[in-house]
Amino acid sequence: xxxxxxxxxxxxxxxxxxxxxxxxxxxxxxxxxxxxxxxxxxxxxxxxxxxxxxxxxxxxxxxxxxxxxxxxxxxxxxxxxxxxxxxxxxxxxxxxxxxxxxxxxxxxxxxxxxxxxxxxxxxxxxxxxxxxxxxxxxxxxxxxxxxxxxxxxxxxxxxxxxxxxxxxxxxxxxxxxxxxxxxxxxxxxxxxxxxxxxxxxxxxxxxxxxxxxxxxxxxxxxxxxxxxxxxxxx
Length: 234
What we know:
Elements (H helix, E strand, L loop, with lengths): L1 H20 L2 H11 L3 H5 L3 E10 L2 E10 L3 E8 L2 E8 L3 E4 L9 E2 L2 H7 L18 E8 L2 E8 L2 E7 L6 E10 L2 E14 L5 E9 L4 E11 L13
Antiparallel strand pairs: 1-2, 1-13, 2-3, 3-4, 4-5, 5-6, 7-8, 8-9, 9-10, 10-11, 11-12, 12-13
């Protein structure tokens, strides 16, 4: 019995040492494989989702449009009021009647840079170097690998489960209602789409002042999306 316990302790130590010795690129590579693989992900040119978002106890339908490297747009219908957030490869803008305006407003450069990773599937993490970012392994946090991705004067922290290699959480500084806050997003309910990539069908977004709970109800990969929807209305 003592011998078995000794072997088990030794195996645990070896596994822990192996986990610690992994490089940031090895961890990201395993993450890529876990969510579909590099070849399959490279075939994703656009992603369209329909979601249900719980906002302060109210359910609000949301549509999200992504064209890889070109643009991301969110349309949220909150009690009959349309809230639009959009970022493309040149800038970002939003329409938020709840903030006192019904016209599209361009966002400051700092806000654009912090939101720019949204135009990529997987954000700034996947192929980070090609996108002009730098990645650094910060050890572990809560049992998850903690990776810092920096660039454009911003830092995003990604947390990856060491068993599934799914993304469990991300933290980024962003502007919310004129205030700089840490936006923490946790990911769960991972499912493989008909296309063959794995996505989190549930997200909890904590902006400090308020929280959102998002559940994905429909996914379409490579749906035809007109790039004009990412342009700021004149």
